Amino acid sequence: MSLRLFESLATTELLAEVFSDASLLASMLRFEVALARAEARVGVIPVAAADRIADAAVVDAFDPAAIARVARASGTIAIPLVERLTARVRAANPDGATFVHWGATSQDVSDTALVLCLVRARRILVADHERLASALRRLSDQHAGSVMLARTLLQPAPPITFGLKVAGWFGAVSRGGARVDSAFNDACVLQFGGASGTLAALGAHGLTVAEELARELELTNPDAPWHAHRDRLASLAGACGVYTGTLGKIARDVALLMQHEVGEVAEPGGASSTMPHKRNPAGCAIALAAAIRVPGLVSTFLSGMPQEHERGVGGWHAEAATIAAIVQATGAALAALADAIEALSVDAGRMRANIAATRGMVFAERAMTLLAPELGRDVASRLIARALDVTRREGHNFVETLAADAEVAAVLAHADLSSLGTPEAYLGAAEQLRRRLMNIERG
Amino acid sequence: MSLRLFESLATTELLAEVFSDASLLASMLRFEVALARAEARVGVIPVAAADRIADAAVVDAFDPAAIARVARASGTIAIPLVERLTARVRAANPDGATFVHWGATSQDVSDTALVLCLVRARRILVADHERLASALRRLSDQHAGSVMLARTLLQPAPPITFGLKVAGWFGAVSRGGARVDSAFNDACVLQFGGASGTLAALGAHGLTVAEELARELELTNPDAPWHAHRDRLASLAGACGVYTGTLGKIARDVALLMQHEVGEVAEPGGASSTMPHKRNPAGCAIALAAAIRVPGLVSTFLSGMPQEHERGVGGWHAEAATIAAIVQATGAALAALADAIEALSVDAGRMRANIAATRGMVFAERAMTLLAPELGRDVASRLIARALDVTRREGHNFVETLAADAEVAAVLAHADLSSLGTPEAYLGAAEQLRRRLMNIERG
Amino acid sequence: MSLRLFESLATTELLAEVFSDASLLASMLRFEVALARAEARVGVIPVAAADRIADAAVVDAFDPAAIARVARASGTIAIPLVERLTARVRAANPDGATFVHWGATSQDVSDTALVLCLVRARRILVADHERLASALRRLSDQHAGSVMLARTLLQPAPPITFGLKVAGWFGAVSRGGARVDSAFNDACVLQFGGASGTLAALGAHGLTVAEELARELELTNPDAPWHAHRDRLASLAGACGVYTGTLGKIARDVALLMQHEVGEVAEPGGASSTMPHKRNPAGCAIALAAAIRVPGLVSTFLSGMPQEHERGVGGWHAEAATIAAIVQATGAALAALADAIEALSVDAGRMRANIAATRGMVFAERAMTLLAPELGRDVASRLIARALDVTRREGHNFVETLAADAEVAAVLAHADLSSLGTPEAYLGAAEQLRRRLMNIERG
Amino acid sequence: MSLRLFESLATTELLAEVFSDASLLASMLRFEVALARAEARVGVIPVAAADRIADAAVVDAFDPAAIARVARASGTIAIPLVERLTARVRAANPDGATFVHWGATSQDVSDTALVLCLVRARRILVADHERLASALRRLSDQHAGSVMLARTLLQPAPPITFGLKVAGWFGAVSRGGARVDSAFNDACVLQFGGASGTLAALGAHGLTVAEELARELELTNPDAPWHAHRDRLASLAGACGVYTGTLGKIARDVALLMQHEVGEVAEPGGASSTMPHKRNPAGCAIALAAAIRVPGLVSTFLSGMPQEHERGVGGWHAEAATIAAIVQATGAALAALADAIEALSVDAGRMRANIAATRGMVFAERAMTLLAPELGRDVASRLIARALDVTRREGHNFVETLAADAEVAAVLAHADLSSLGTPEAYLGAAEQLRRRLMNIERG
């Protein structure tokens, strides 16, 4: 198992595997093998050496604990890995050992291995993103006509539809996913520059080897090595941060709607260790936890960007744990929220009942739009305030109270008054906006 | 003056003006006037009302201190502004007062006013970005042939050219500027949704008014109001964070190169209050300060994203100060670094001397690339380690020491040995990479 | 007015004044005057010079805009301030000008002026802290017997008292205030070290001048200058962060309890610009905004700590704006929350009604504690799950459903069953814990 | 192995073990056993049940992967752990199963288990802190007389001693360690409150059980359960952040002093994978990486503090991974820096040479203190500026240039002039301050 209990809510099984020791070692070895093959093809090293390196690059032959120990002394896991690989090649073929890691620097293998892990993680994130987006699309379509309270500053506001609310979630999820996707495109590029970023150890063959290496690894070859310029990874971190913020917003909405006192939706949720009656918003908790954790991690990544000269002291060393945590948290939030939304139960009756429970007061704004043009804002304000007072004090219904007011009745048609408290009559452009939001991906 | 001394290094005069009280009030009033005009054009309110609103919307008639005081009680500056505007219209024309802020909500005016300020800030950032990019381009071209030490983990590494180093800066600056630009495009959109985001108070005219309002303000009209979905602004914050990280990286490099012991470049810098001999990297200090401040501010913005339902409690309220600080810090860094780079003095002789001061040891890697294919990595390593030991112990030159070694001389041609310590002979693809980086904007 | 609209929710009038230009200039001039007086007393400079410096140190004679402009060129506001002060002294008395800022460095005046501002801010924070703590104490005592739902993961849990809930707030507020207080004690110390922190320019008199200067400014004189060691200020930032987190927790609780669907408490709050019926949790919004902003600001402060050698490049320059923002945000949260709690209205009836609305299901845990010892956990679980199912499906009351179960009635006494749904009968140690928490300050 | 390669620089072997699955499971089981024993002693559950629970609580019988999987569905690892423990007890003794986790809630076991891990981590941190403090003390004493340049904004300033510089490090390390220690004291307290924090399920025995449980676990019993009040842990996080900032400051200083061009100190460091000549500041890199990572993690912890009601959604769930990362990063920095400082080599000759390399210009401030009282600041400034110009232009020595100036010679005694460039003559209170700093722990 590659996931730790202390982080059980911070990743998923699939993502934990991507950032496991086995996966990282495999990625580093894949780099070294691809490098040797590329160099052999270009004629920089003997083909036989490349073959021996490929033979020796067997994940199970590498002891993560020993590598980690040396890494803390040397500041990088690349050095012990290369040493161990060299020793294995030497044991089989002393000549081949000469050409292990030929022309490369520690950062080439570390960064490219990280990128290879990111490529794998990306597929997992995309799958859960699509699952979430589909579930939101279905949910919005199903509830295009389900009226509910809008809530601003957690207080009731004039009605919307649940379909529109979900369409808002969908729009933000679509934008968020697109940004992450684009950032992965930019970030998933080869790192290969040798000691100083000039590929000098490869003489005239540097750029050709780089091209071959990129092809071998199915990565884009960027314009130049990016050793101390971490902006592409930083942008990926930022895009994950923005997306996770959106996932957290949705999770918070769901958790609030799931309160017993609100009761409008419920995710399948989890049980309690002690309270038999409870159903907890466990999926929302995981998504919100990610939305709380990722901003600080993004901040860390950005803080580490001012890296000294051609390879930094500390800034670079802070990255691996950080970007792995960011991507896993994003994926954990996506998976948990996709599960929650796919299985969300919605109580449209309770939504309507919660509007009714405001006893019409939520339509006070509407009353203002009807009365003010007739009576002027000041008179209208006075009449509405008076009706609200009476409504609150005596537990009446605002619409009826208002209708009973002679001053109001004198200027408002019966039809207007009778529909004043009808949610469907005060939805404005809700459905048009919902459709515009749902078309985002197609438009 | 709109800049405060406590933040004198955190902004520029131009940007401080953009985020000043006068500028914010003007933006809010511009929204209210444009709203009234759009509504009058669509026929939702009387043209005369729109005219009276425009007459009353005079920045100087609004007292920022009084507005701030009420804002703390109501949670938004929109409420006191609208009240004051209404009072001014009422004084001139009681009927007009009815139609101030008609159909809009506080967040519509606050968010759109923020966007209007961002549009202005963007122009300032773009101008300094272009100034910086041009200066970097010139500098890189001038020093395409100036050899210098690469430095990894602050230790000497095989040579690069200063032209390549600057091209790396240029590449990251170009990418950073492009990301900020794209994020401004996405973020600078109209906010207009009314109380619940449905434009219900405008009946059937909501979407038409929105179109007119966007045209009036020269802003894009998005697919829907974005009240509690803050991802577009968050992306802008993130892009500023990544860009500022790059500016901080360049500033750190310059400050390090400017150390007395290194002495390779100097920015014009600032004096000391007490030490007559000093020239401080003041521009770098401002850029680095921004690179330290912005990550935490980005984190704040992302943290505030999970906003409740249709308008959040706290998350939204944390944004204005945060985004204003981010944009100003980015601009302060840009301006300071553009000044520093434009006036940077470069000492190419000192660069070469610093290579020489490593007494050839920085070419040990090159020696390895020459010896290992002949002798195998293990023998080569032993010979080089021995020569390095002698060099260190006796203060010799590594290249000469190595050349004096009979085992080495037996396998290496005289030409190879004599050029082993020549920086120009070990630059690899430096110039090709430099050209690729400098073409980024054209490619 | 020293507060800006973009930050109107991020400070208070009193705190904005403390961090205003006038206040900062006054603090810097106070340092320069005190330094001159201390040096004159020790005999390092002429008494007449000290008098002339005191005469010239008139806040209004200094133009903040001009100082800020030079600050951006020199990296510090100290240099233009000292230059201007020197010019003013020189105009009156050329000899006196020699001794302005004698033996001090820019950082001495900047840091000590910051500390003097912090001393003033502290008093404001303490006053609001005491106001909040008193209000919480009263509230807890008043509602020692008001039963309400506990809520875990936003779902109903067995009852607590509102008195206990408020006592929990009080406990955390007391600990938070105590930590901030202690951190202010540590942080509010003199900075005085001269160019390199050795006071060398004062020859043998350095330590004596430092003692006199500290006395003059009523500040503690620390063991040594702390130029690049920022841990004391960082601890203050951290303590403010922890305290603001607690204030945010209370604000979130109040805002949630204030939801229309919950309706258990209400802060006086603010109006809406468009919805006449609304009362917004404006105080909570301000406190929560601070709780969202301060963590990122604390992160910034900590990130800036690794400052180079005896004075850093950038790390130090990032601090002033950051610490000022942290202290103001903390104070804004405190003031807003103290206002909200002092005027909080509590609906104990609604609290009890919300328990009742769970139809007894919230006592399922209690049923388990009664049944399990008799029947074993497995049988008890089955019976309770069955009763919960029936309760949910048929809209019954859980306690009655359970009591109607023959298996249950066989083992549970009538008395236990009849009190099963009585909140007061299942409060455990609530009142004892409440008293322990309320005694924190006395204990 | 419990450490992962992606985090190999982010922890140590000892700390990775403390936060391993085995350690966490053992801590959780220890809680459950201690709870059963405490309850049996008080008479709440049968002694036999407690014995059976103790028998079943065998770490190896619990599958971390299975627990993690369920944790993601239920939002907590406590639920699957308790279920598995209950199943094991039931298999041996069905009656005992009734009393597993009796009266406790998930958070009781999760939080207390975390605290038990922190208690273990604390011992490791304390040991490395003491190792570091001792090494610093020795180093400072050894180099009380080693003069070196002070450096402000990375530019040369008048001399200090390396002993004073190290004493400054020591002072900050002492303060930092003391703060962490005190925060551990506050944070390492029992969590035990049952479902709602009232211990209601234990009837009249709640507080007594809590006392016994605390004794059993050798933890302090706080005034009340702290379920949603996370300020004690947050303070620990903050204290670690401040301490790590100090460790980062020292590491940055060391890495800068270790630059080839400066060459004043060297840590044993690590090799390069490709450059045989290099010795990298690997220990500094690890400490600086921690100083970059921890601020963002602290920010996360603080951001998560506003937790809803009696147990939050997301805020709580974000904590475990965060606090574990903070403590491990702090410990990794401490261990790496203690290693580096213990083995630091110091080149006092190079320190003196670097002063000399400023050609006396670093004493310009001293010249000012000598000349200004005689000639006035303006004349003195002019003479010094002229001498600096000549020095820079002609490569002379500033002291000699100045001495050659007739105007200067007229007012300055030969003795003053001849000692002007002697570092030892311009150290001010360096040694007194060093002694004051080194006595911190005793004072």
Give structural notes.
Chain A is mainly α. Chain A has helices spanning 13-18, 21-42, 47-56, 64-74, 78-92, 94-97, 106-142, 162-187, 206-217, 231-257, 282-303, 319-342, 348-356, 364-375, 377-394, 398-403, 406-411, 414-419, 430-438, and strands at 147-152, 155-161, 265-266, 345-346. In chain A, a hairpin with a 2-residue loop joins strand 1 and strand 2 (155-161). In chain A, helix 10 (231-257) packs parallel to helix 12. The relative contact order of chain A is 0.11. Chains in contact: A-B, A-C, A-D, B-C, B-D, C-D. Chains C and D meet through helix 6, strand 1, strand 2, helix 8 and helix 10 of C and helix 6, strand 1, strand 2, helix 8 and helix 10 of D.
Task: Please name the defining characteristics of this protein.
homotetramer; 443 residues; mainly alpha; Fumarase C, Chain B, domain 1; Fumarase C, Chain A, domain 2; Ribonucleotide Reductase Protein R1, domain 1; two-stranded antiparallel sheet; two-stranded antiparallel ribbon; 19 helices
Produce a short descriptive summary.
4 copies of one chain form a homotetramer. The first copy, chain A, is mostly helical. Chain A has helices at residues 13-18, 21-42, 47-56, 64-74, 78-92, 94-97, 106-142, 162-187, 206-217, 231-257, 282-303, 319-342, 348-356, 364-375, 377-394, 398-403, 406-411, 414-419, 430-438; strands at 147-152, 155-161, 265-266, 345-346.
